[in-house]
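Researcher: I'd like a structural prediction for the single chain below. Treat it as a standalone chain; there are no partners to consider.
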Amino acid sequence: MVWLGIGALIMVFAVPHGLGGVHSPGAGFMPFLIGLAICILAVIVFIQGTAARLRGSLWESIVKDVRWEKPLITLAALLVYVLLMNFLGFILATALLVGFLLKVIHPQKWPVVLSGAVLTSLASYILFQIWLKTQLPVGILRF
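Model: Treating it as a single chain, here is the predicted structure.
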C-alpha cells in the first residue's frame, strides 16, 4: 500500500508539469508513466500477497539469503568513480571502474579485463562526447 501511495503522489505531482501527448510529451509525461507503473506493480504485489496470506503462507523476507558483499563493493566502486571523475577524467575513470568490476565482481582473465575496460571506456566516450555532444571531464590527461 505504501508503494501505491508513492506512485499516486508521483502521478499527482507530474500533472501540473503538463502531460502532453504520445507524439509531443510534456515535462510530466515520463514521471506520470513511472508513477502509473509503480501503482500497477504495487497492486499486483498486493494481490499476490493477499492471495498468499489467504492460502496460509506467512510473509517471508526476500533478502534473507542475499549476499551483500558484491553489491556493497560495487556501490563503493561507483562512489570512488564519482569522486575521481573530475580528477582522472571520464575515459580513465571509466576504464578503471570497468576493469575493477570485471576483475573483482565478476572475475575475468586479464586480457578480457583490459580489453573490456578500454573498449567500454572508448565506446562510452564516442557515444556521449562525440555522438550526443555532452561535456565530459577531461581530467589529468587533458584529452
